[in-house]
């Protein structure tokens, strides 16, 4: 059975900035930046899974919303989907990542051009730029 990995586009509406997280592992993607998230557990909604993962990994509260962009097949077992999210409480901390960064549209494009994003997440570049516009 395919498991879903949910990833959060956490956008601060006031500053029009997106939260990116720098991966620590595995070696293939260590140092690259991603939309933070994790695997959906049995019986969990995508939104509940993402709210749980972000609380665990970033120590912050979000409200997860609708899916955007295309789903990405990562392997035979894993499919990656992106959800919109809005910060609700707490400042994000890199509890599981190397670092965190808020980027505006120009910053996101520059990182994509420099090849600093996790490959799967580049699928959502245009969608993310639209959300930040
Ligand atoms: O912690 P672990 O690596 O087991 O899992 P994860 O962080 O939940 O990610 C599961 C898979 O999704 C990994 O292959 C990640 O590289 C991938 N992923 C991704 O490509 N882009 C994201 N924004 C989040 C996860």
Radius of gyration over all CA atoms, rounded: 14 Å
Biggest pleated-sheet summary: 7 strands, mixed
Oligomer: single chain
- CATH class reads Alpha Beta
Mean pLDDT metric: 98
Judged by helices, strands and strand pairing, the structural class is alpha+beta
SSE topology string: EEEEHEEEHH
Number of domains: 1
Relative strand content: 35-45%
**CATH architecture level-2 label:** Alpha-Beta Complex
Shape: globular
Helicity, in percent? 10-25%
Number of helices: 3
Low-confidence stretches: none
Query: Which ligands accompany this protein?
Result: cytidine-5'-diphosphate
| CATH topology type | Nucleoside Triphosphate Pyrophosphohydrolase
DSSP E strands, number: 7
- Name given to the CATH homologous superfamily: Nucleoside Triphosphate Pyrophosphohydrolase
Distance between the termini: 37 Å
InterPro entries: MutT-like (IPR047127), Nudix_hydrolase (IPR020476), NUDIX_hydrolase-like_dom_sf (IPR015797), NUDIX_hydrolase_CS (IPR020084), NUDIX_hydrolase_dom (IPR000086)
GO molecular function, one term: 8-oxo-dGDP phosphatase activity
Keywords: DNA damage, DNA repair, DNA replication, Hydrolase, Magnesium, Metal-binding, Mutator protein
Domain Nudix hydrolase: 1-125
Task: Write structural notes for this entry.
The relative contact order is 0.27. This protein is α+β, with helices and mostly antiparallel strands and 133 residues long. Helix 2 (105-113) runs antiparallel to helix 3. It has a single domain (3-132), classed as Nucleoside Triphosphate Pyrophosphohydrolase, CATH 3.90.79. Strands 1, 2, 3, 4, 5, 6 and 7 form a 7-stranded mixed beta sheet that branches. The chain is globular, with a radius of gyration of 14 Å. The model has no long low-confidence stretch (mean pLDDT 98). Strand 1 and strand 2 form a beta hairpin. The chain is built from 3 helices and 7 strands, in the order E-E-E-E-H-E-E-E-H-H. The site of cytidine-5'-diphosphate has 14 residues, from strand 1, strand 4 and strand 6.
């Amino acid at each position: 059975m395919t498991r879903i990995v949910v990833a959060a586009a956490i956008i601060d509406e006031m500053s029009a900035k997106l939260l990116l997280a720098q991966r620590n592992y595995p070696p293939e993607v260590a140092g690259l930046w991603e939309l933070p998230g994790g695997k959906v557990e049995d019986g969990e909604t995508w939104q509940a899974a993402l709210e749980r993962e972000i609380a665990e990994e970033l120590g912050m509260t979000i409200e997860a919303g609708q899916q955007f962009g295309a789903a990405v097949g990562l392997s035979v077992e894993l499919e990656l989907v992106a959800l919109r999210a809005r910060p609700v409480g707490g400042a994000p901390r890199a509890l599981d990542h190397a670092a965190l960064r808020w980027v505006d549209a120009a910053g996101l494009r520059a990182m994509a051009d420099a090849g600093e994003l996790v490959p799967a997440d580049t699928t959502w570049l245009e969608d993310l730029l639209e959300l930040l516009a």
